[in-house]
Design brief:
Blueprint (H helix, E strand, L loop, with lengths): L2 H19 L7 H21 L4 H21 L5 H16 L1 H24 L3 H6 L1 H12 L12 H21 L6 H23 L3 H34 L6 H32 L9 H38 L1
Helix pairs in contact: 1-3, 2-3, 4-11, 4-12, 5-9, 5-10, 8-9, 8-10, 8-11, 9-10, 10-11, 10-12
């Protein structure tokens, strides 16, 4: 059978399954299982006769989504919050993984712009960070306390303020994606340039090591979350600019639903970053260096594993379950 005819013959059925997945059409578990079996038969046919076709990729994705719906229906007794972080978010991150790559690419580029700008313009840090902040930090560096700025205020008061500020920054990175992703890139540019110039500023005054011991205690969770939030904004923007087979409104709804779930997954990391900044960073230079490194690299391993490695593990597990169901 020619692929064009195969698509024409089954197109309406597949579109109907998409509506079931989106929740527009309600089906009981038995009907869902029947749809799943029918779709698996189409997938097997496509894998046999059109192995490298986009049709096969599409059917494999559709099969994964309806399997997840069946799985969730059968596992209603499982803790919903646990399922959200353990399965749902990782699968979405895997599905949109290229946007995470784009976000990190832009973050790296923008940070380098900030660093190079500070290298060639000695007043750039004052423009970006503010003259008062720079002068205060220089004074702290001269006193041998590069992280002195983090020691002001009460611990709990600082923590609450930091958490709300960081969530606000993340929300802007995400919501600004509604402007076709351009708003997200602008917000990411502002924060990344600040980071680049900030780090070079400490290097220029011979305090990069001390600053890193303090800043990256909380910075790993904070900055990594910022990049993931930018990823969410890019997903939102792409859903508007590139609706594919959906209407632009339905594409936006799907993009918002998926990206918002990923955005929510960053909130615990942002809260942890705020707690570390409020309670731990102020003691950074009094801590054993080994403890600083354990916290910094431990944080990097945790968040890096969750967003880079674990999604592939969950996706492979789901695909294996689908394969076993077919057999």
């Amino acid at each position: 059978m020619r692929e064009v005819y195969f698509i024409k013959q089954n197109k309406e059925k597949w579109l109907g399954i998409e509506q079931v997945i989106q929740g527009k059409i309600k089906k009981n578990p038995d009907d869902l299982s029947s749809l799943y079996i029918n779709l698996i038969n189409d997938l097997s046919f496509a894998q046999t006769y059109y192995p490298k076709s986009n049709t096969t990729v599409y059917l494999n994705h559709l099969s994964s989504q309806i399997f997840q719906k069946i799985y969730k229906t059968k596992r209603v007794e499982e803790n919903r919050l646990l399922y959200f972080f353990k399965t749902e978010v990782p699968l979405l991150v895997y599905q949109y993984r290229r946007y995470l790559g784009y976000a990190f690419l832009f973050f790296t580029l923008f940070t380098l712009i900030g660093l190079l700008s500070a290298v060639y313009d000695k007043d750039f840090a004052k423009i970006i960070l503010g003259e008062d902040y720079v002068n205060q930090t220089i004074e702290n560096i001269n006193k041998g306390n590069a992280v002195g700025v983090y020691q002001s205020g009460s611990t709990w008061g600082s923590t609450i303020g930091i958490i709300f500020n960081n969530i606000g920054v993340g929300a802007k990175l995400y919501i600004y994606g509604i402007f076709g992703g351009v708003g997200t890139l602008w917000a990411l540019l502002s924060n990344s340039v600040m980071l680049g110039s900030f780090q070079y500023f400490f290097y220029d005054y011979g305090a990069l090591g001390d600053s890193a011991r303090g800043i990256w205690l909380h910075g790993v969770f904070e900055i990594f979350s910022m990049v993931v939030e930018a990823m969410c904004g890019l997903i939102l923007g792409a859903s508007i600019l590139f609706p594919k087979t959906f209407s632009r409104f339905n594409s936006f709804k799907n993009g918002f639903k998926d990206s918002f779930k990923i955005f929510l997954s960053t909130v615990p990391f942002t809260i942890c970053a705020g707690i570390i900044e409020g309670y731990v960073t102020r003691h950074a230079l009094n801590m054993p260096l080994s403890l600083n490194l354990i916290i910094i690299f431990g944080s990097l391993i945790i968040i890096g594993f969750y967003y880079f490695i674990y999604p592939s593990i969950v996706n492979r597990k789901i695909n294996n379950q689908i394969h076993d169901a077919v057999l």
